[in-house]
């Protein structure tokens, strides 16, 4: 299952995870007593999961969260509805709790709708710790977005094109202190011909062990495999 020395390949499928009365991500095919605490999450984040009605973690969460908490890079193969947003949001929030910092994590997404969904989940899970998010997507006023960036939120959720716009035009904004890069639905990002934008973004990020990478994709395509190599280099 190891893809590279510091990267673990994690696979999940919505076929293995159907909704239950207890949790939107619980597997009905077998009884599972695993808790979010068992994954290594702090009490405050476990309480956040409980407040959302989540009793047990989904398959992708059980696989990804413990690995991410060790600081390793991961590639998760999981579809929409598998619980993957929490699979990367919870480790990021726990790391943020341990070492608070502005511009802590960047989440790249292919669409505006997904960006807002991810922001909503971060804010719900991080409500009790005061996490601040900004959504940078096209079709919205850049000045308003720049004003929020000026307050230096913890989490940036963006589509590649609009993020580049701010990197090139918003004074004082850079990603040199970033600790986490997450690419959600990477196959869709690359299928939408965002390779040039992604390359520009990667070139502006800190290199080396100071930045952790989490890549989630529905499938492992050639483009995704190439991107994984770029993130690992």
UniProtKB/TrEMBL annotation:
Predominantly, its location class is: nucleus
Q: Which Gene3D superfamilies match?
A: P-loop containing nucleotide triphosphate hydrolases
Protein name from the UniProt record = RNA helicase
**Which residue windows does the record flag with biased composition (Basic and acidic residues)?**
18-27
Cellular compartment(s): Nucleus
Which EC class heads this enzyme's classification? Answer: hydrolase
Recorded hits in CDD domains, A to Z, give: DEADc_DDX47
Per UniProt, the short sequence motif Q motif occupies residue numbers 34-62
**Residues annotated as region Disordered?**
12-33
Q: Recorded GO terms, molecular function?
A: ATP binding; hydrolase activity; RNA binding; RNA helicase activity
Q: Name one GO cellular component term.
A: cytosol
Q: Which residues form the DEAD-box RNA helicase Q domain?
A: 34-62
User: From which domain of life does this come?
Assistant: Eukaryota
User: Which keywords appear in this protein's UniProt record, sorted alphabetically?
Assistant: ATP-binding, Helicase, Hydrolase, Nucleotide-binding, Nucleus, RNA-binding
The cross-references to InterPro entries, in alphabetical order and at most eight, read:
DDX47/Rrp3_DEADc (IPR044765), DEAD/DEAH_box_helicase_dom (IPR011545), DEAD_box_RNA_helicase (IPR050079), Helicase_ATP-bd (IPR014001), P-loop_NTPase (IPR027417), RNA_helicase_DEAD_Q_motif (IPR014014)
Query: What is an example of a Pfam family matching this protein?
Result: DEAD
Q: Where does the Helicase ATP-binding domain start and stop, copy by copy?
A: 65-233
Give the EC number(s) listed in the UniProt record.
Answer: 3.6.4.13
């Amino acid at each position: 299952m190891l893809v590279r020395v510091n990267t673990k390949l994690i696979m999940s499928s919505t076929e293995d995870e159907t909704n239950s009365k207890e949790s939107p991500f619980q597997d009905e095919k077998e009884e599972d007593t695993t808790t979010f605490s068992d994954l290594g999450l702090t009490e405050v984040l476990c309480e956040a999961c409980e407040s959302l009605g989540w009793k047990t973690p989904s398959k992708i969460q059980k696989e990804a969260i413990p690995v991410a908490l060790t600081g390793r890079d991961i590639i998760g193969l999981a579809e929409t509805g598998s619980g993957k947003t929490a699979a990367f949001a919870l480790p990021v929030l726990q790391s943020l709790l341990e070492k608070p910092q502005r511009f802590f994590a960047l989440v790249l997404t292919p669409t505006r709708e997904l960006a807002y969904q991810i922001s909503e989940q971060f804010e719900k899970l991080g409500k009790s710790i005061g996490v601040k998010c900004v959504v940078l997507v096209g079709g919205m006023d850049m000045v308003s977005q720049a004003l929020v960036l000026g307050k230096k939120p913890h989490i940036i959720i963006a589509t590649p094109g609009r993020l580049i716009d701010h990197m090139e035009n918003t004074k004082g904004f850079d990603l040199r202190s970033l600790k986490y890069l997450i690419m959600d639905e990477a196959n869709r990002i690359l299928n939408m011909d965002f390779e040039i934008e992604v390359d520009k973004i990667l070139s502006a990020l800190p290199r080396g062990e100071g930045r952790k990478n989490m890549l989630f994709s529905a499938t492992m395509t050639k483009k995704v495999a190439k991107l994984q190599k770029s993130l690992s280099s």
